[in-house]
Amino acid sequence: MEWKGGWVGKILRVNLSKEEVKEQDLPKDLALEWIGGRGFAIKILWDELEPETDPLSPENKVVIATGPLTGTITPSSGKLVVASKSPLTGGYGDGNIGTYFAPMLKMAGYDAVVLEGKAKKPVYIYITPNGVEIKDASHLWGKSTIETEIILREDHGKNIGVISIGPAGENLVKFAVVISEYGRAGGRPGIGTVFGAKKVKALVAEGWNDIPVANIDEAFNLAWEARVKLLSHPGYRKWIGQGTMMTIEWSQEASVLPTNNFSEGVFDAYMNIGGETMEKVYKLLRKGCFSCPMPCGNLSIAKMGKFMGTWAELDYENVAMLGSNIGIGDMNIVIKLNRLADEWGVDTISLGNAIGFAIELYQRGIISQKQTGKLELKWGDEEAILALAEKIIKREDIGKLLAEGTRAAAEKIGKEAPKYAIQVKGLEVSAYDCHAAPAMALSYGTSPIGAHHKDAWVISWEVKIGRDKLDKSKVDKVIEFQRIRGGLFEILTVCRLPWIELALDLEYYVKLFHAVTGINYTLDNFFFIADKIYNLIRAFWIREYGEWRREYDYPPRKWFEIPLSKGPLAGAKLTKESYDKLLDWYYEARGWDKNGVPRKSTLEKFGLSYVIETLEERGITLSE
């Protein structure tokens, strides 16, 4: 089977230690069996990393991968995946980012970039169809991501794509991300940290070549039809007005809005930071990615107080984690915190978790002012919170500990601290409280990168069908969404929001894949590949940990041990018995044993027989 379009057929390899740049033909089996994005990333990292590679060593690698639909006229196709072995979790880590860098990379002639080794001094990589240069970035080191991108655009023109890191990545804060276009972030599990360890400040892509398309007329007609459907959807007007910010009000109503370090699901001042208020008072512009007919970016500006005039791009996760989760009900302060996080190049979700974790420990007497650097930590105290955030980025006082992530910090602090670390496998939970949402808790527990909503956002469905309902339908829904959200969209690689928010049929993506590549795959073909990817990612975690326990797939202890005390769900908490039942069903459906390890027969089914020998060499016992 040959492809006629979609992929441009090249992988760029940059060896920073040797200052060498090489071009590699895209292997046919990699394209047809792993498709792109997350598929490319996990296959390359599995094949090329030695077990127990130190994530911050030169031996670790970063994979930056597009998919066959990236950069085409497919709606919302400006996506790519950044991946590496995570310094935050010690397992597989990735994230996707909506950016013009993605289509520019393909138009420069590459489906993916692999960064290897470590530079002797700060560098950035400049990629064009005419060649690739490793350029000095000493003048950029120490600058914010926004300053960095402005300077790079002054040097190389406006028609470029940029991804860069800020001081968080340079200082090896374990949850540093890459940033593009002054506010788009990707790589929650510390991919920006790996950039920093490798002394890579930025990648710049400038492309002008056409991306091949097998049947341009068919692709155009499908894309046009899809866009018409999106723009005529009844929810389109509200979507472009608020984007994901409308979820603040929904989460409050559903009692899942993270409040005071996930202690509650409701927040008294939710309206002040909600989508309605944002749209009417603070929003200036809406911003979208390449080829996006439904832009979700809410470029907003502080209107009063000492931060008046500060702007940032807002979405639900950022605002909930840097608002209600740390007790802040003033949008002006939330905007300031978001802006600082973007400048620093740090994940807003983990930052909000780390701050909330520290405040709760202080309030409970587990840490003292001596440890905080004389800060008195209180919910909603903007001055103390801003000072703490800066300490994390600079690794000062308790910030040095929090910069390692809440799991590592809790283990170091000891006492009851681990109970208040809201994380799974080392990655902090994103903005949905699950005291009364067992299916969503399962989604967090089984996410392939640690606690993240991206792969299986089932909470809206769960609220509709019944939170107390306990049957296999909840497991089926989690796996269905993992196949679609964490599989199909992460390998093609395009945005999932047209499907989620405005009900664009999945068959459009199947048809567009055929129109662009010339290859006939069905949804079942893509779901098979998604399951194969999930099994290889699970095997990667097991290989790196050298063992596996089902407890690694448990959600935070707090949701089991401390019930909600406010709102309509007061008294609610998860039970171990119910969660274990869901987890048993999940493992069974995945073809994994009772501890969450893939069976030999499952690995063989997906053509992953080579994984068996590797895991057995690591002392892992595999069931038949």
CATH architect. name of the largest domain: 4-Layer Sandwich
The largest pleated sheet is described as: 6 strands, mixed
Q: Which shape, going by the Cα principal axes?
A: globular
Highest-level CATH class of the largest domain: Alpha Beta
- Counted up, domains total 3
What is the helix content? 40-55%
What does this structure look like?
42% of the residues lie in helices and 13% in strands. The protein has 624 residues and is an alpha+beta fold. The chain folds into 3 domains: 10-205, Aldehyde ferredoxin oxidoreductase, N-terminal domain (Aldehyde Ferredoxin Oxidoreductase,  A, domain 1); 244-428, Aldehyde Ferredoxin Oxidoreductase Protein, subunit A, domain 2; 438-502 and 522-617, Aldehyde Ferredoxin Oxidoreductase Protein, subunit A, domain 3, CATH 1.10.599. Strands 2-1-6-3-4-5 form a 6-stranded mixed sheet. It has a 4-stranded mixed sheet with strand order 8-7-12-9. Strand 1 and strand 2 (20-25) form a beta hairpin. It is globular, with a radius of gyration of 23 Å. The mean pLDDT is 97.
